[in-house]
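Researcher: Re-running this chain for the archive, since the previous output was lost when a drive failed. Same request as before.
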Amino acid sequence: MMEKMKQLTLISYIRLLQNSINPKSLTDVRQAHAHLISNGYMLGVFLGNRLIDMYVKCGSIVDACHVFDKMAQRDVTSWNSLITGYTKTGDLENARKLFDKMIRRDVVSWTALISGYDQQGHNEAALRFFSQMVQSCTKPNQFTFASALSSCASLLAFNSGKQVHGYIVRTGFESDVFVGSALIDLYAKCGSLDDARRVFDKMPEQSAVSWTTLMVGYAQNQSGEETLRLYCRMRRAEMKQDRVALVSALIACGSLASLVHGRIVHAKVITTGFCTDSFVGNTVVDMYAKCGALRDACQMFDRMSEWNIVSWTALIAGYVQNGYSEEGLKLFQKLLWTDVKPNPFTFASTLSACASLALLELGKQLHVHIIGTGHESFLTVANSLVTVYAKCGSIDYAAQVFYNIACKDLVSWNAMIAGYAHNGDGKEALQVFEVMLQTDMKPDQITFLAILTACCHAGLVDEGCYYFDLMRRKHNTFLTNDHYACMIDLLGRAGRICEAEDIINNMTIEPDAVVWKTLLGACRIHANVEVGERAAKHLISWEPETSSTYVLLSNVYAAASRWSDVAKVRKLMKDRGVKKEAGHSWIQVRDRVYTFIAEDTSHPHSEQIYAMVERLAMQM
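Model: Regenerated structure tokens:
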């Protein structure tokens, strides 16, 4: 490049700086700068501005400052370029000092400062500068508005965002694609999806960024159906789909358990070459797991070039959530042999597997591991520990973990209340609930389900009726079939069969099989044939091949000593080809879980096992 510089006029220098030098090569810029000085050229406004801009693009703010200080004359572009350089390097203090020294500021000056504060996370300061800019009668441009809206979105400042939007409309920037996308992002992050959609629909031209921003908004607000619908429209519009759009669509497919659409999006991931992207790959694994397609999830996991903790956690959680807790635990053990360290979500999923299998000892071992890695303070881990101890019957350990949680959320309270409920300590569950209400924490459906379960297990009929009425009258909680089933069980155990049937007949939703089966079970306990027959009639009409209904009805007749009716029910089962389902159990021996059913001979040591059972039976 030096050869080009040997005999240059000033105009030639200008052309060289504009066209020939790589603006991102610090060496080239410094050579050009040195040659200018050695040939005695003064740094005029144009040459100086060009050098400052090039040094800023190279990331050398020191060289840019040196040029700025040596310039005999400067214009507003000189100041703006250096302010931009400071903000790009995160030096907001010097950017602000330089800005304050400016005699004349234009829209670029204000925008550089506002954008810098926004990008560095100083959103309140960015909005203060935006307000000062408006008061100074400097008209913002699309980039200024985008930075101000970005700060509003980061602060979830919905009202401030609305004010900025009003100013955008008055200044005629509402049709700008860049501004429109920033407005969509603001409203989506503030949870106002209707406003986000109105902005999107009014845009004269929608870019790929606009489509993707709205999709992300729907996905973040758990609107899976709208996310997927928008993605389909985006495909038909032949818009370019980047990794963010594809990930949003995959998340939507997972939340809806829509395997068909998930496969379509996965195919697009393959054709666009994002398969090697770990972020996208992890989302594909998670999508298949949430759709119950664990074979596809495993295949995607195996094809990934590298596995990070998100990859492992997605597959472990997939196994556990789909009822394959043993496989989830085996995968966690494989993870421990790698260099990848578990995170709080990994531990939470693994603890959930222990809870579902009632593996207390393994849960304790995990607890020790969690303490050793410093993850005990994470709320999701602490909540999972409460659940695993409670489900394994160690309610004292569960309470100890619960009361050590500094900032409890609703999940924490629900886990502790449910723990006491399932361990038969109904009064303690109600006491924890009353303490929760004093903290201004609002109960949800899960809370009241745990409360009703507690009352049911402890036989607290009056208390159960009180809380059942409370959830409808005061807390306006939507009643599910599970709530009704608990209430039917509570009244049924107390022999108040007719009251239980009245509740079913006056339900605000359609009673499901569990509700009727609960009533039928109560009829068996109290030998109420009349109500039992009505309940069985509903169940058989819905589920004619389910054996449990026939068995329960047979038991109702047996409890009333109506043996001829017992025989009729058994004959009906035989005629319809209904077979009683075999129950199964499991046991943990040396950190391994063994599952077995009645008369099971699949275990390699089944002969020795049955021999031991016979010896034990003789001794008992």
